[in-house]
Amino acid sequence: MARLILSLDGQVMAEYNMNKERYTVGRLPDNDVRIDNAAVSGHHSLIINILNDSFLEDLNSTNGLYVRALRVHRHYLRDGDVVLIGKHELLYIDERVSQSRGNPNDTLPGVPLLGHDEPTLAGEDIPLEIPTVSPRSQ
Questions:
Q1: pLDDT for position 123
Q2: Is residue 21 part of a domain?
Q3: How does pLDDT run across 36-90, given as a tens digit for each residue?
Q4: What does the pLDDT average to over 8-23?
Q5: Within-domain flag for 50
Q6: Alpha-carbon distance 99 to 79, whole Å?
Q7: In what order do the strands lie in the sheet with 74-76?
Q8: Which long-range contacts (CB under 8 A, 24 or more apart) does 121-125 make?
Q9: Complete DSSP assignment for 86-115
Q10: What is the three-class DSSP state of 125?
Q11: Which residues pair with 45 in a beta bridge?
Q12: Cβ neighbourhood burial of 41 (10 Å; 0-12, 13-18, 19+)
């Protein structure tokens, strides 16, 4: 199961267990995740859960959605993603991934951990260096 943690200026405002298929996010009281702030549209975004995957969609909001400093209209949510809505942050936690990580100190000496701290774009793979082979002289 996934969770959302809503925060403002580092203070946790609310936590949500993602056990429904659809969650609306916005300023109006009829939203599942309510953010009472003028920078947030009445119905700002939608999160859809399909099996074990979660997808974020902007509902034509005025100020948009940002993930990793990029404005997104639709986004596949991954464990650790932080969605910016106005000045509020929604942290997406996928419990299956978080539990499978185990203890972050359990690594081989000298082998760095890979995580969301690397500056990669959504859906981008870690670059792989492929050696170039020069043609043989005849």
A1: 47
A2: yes
A3: 999 999 999 999 999 889 999 999 999 999 998 899 999 999 999 999 999 999 9
A4: 95
A5: yes
A6: 11
A7: 33-34, 22-26, 45-50, 53-58, 74-76
A8: 121/68, 121/70, 122/67, 122/68, 122/70, 122/72, 122/75, 122/76, 122/78, 122/81, 123/76
A9: TTEEEEEEEHHHHHHH--TT-S-TT----S
A10: coil
A11: 25, 58
A12: buried
Look up residue 78 and give its two tokens: 């991954």
Is residue 134 predicted with pLDDT exceeding 80? no
Residue 16 placed within a domain: yes
What is the domain range of residue 22? Answer: 2-99
**Could you say which DSSP state residue 42 is in?**
T
The answer to whether position 30 is within a domain reads yes
On the question of pLDDT at 124 being above 50, the answer is: no
- Please state the pTM of the whole predicted model: 0.70
Residue 137, amino acid:
S
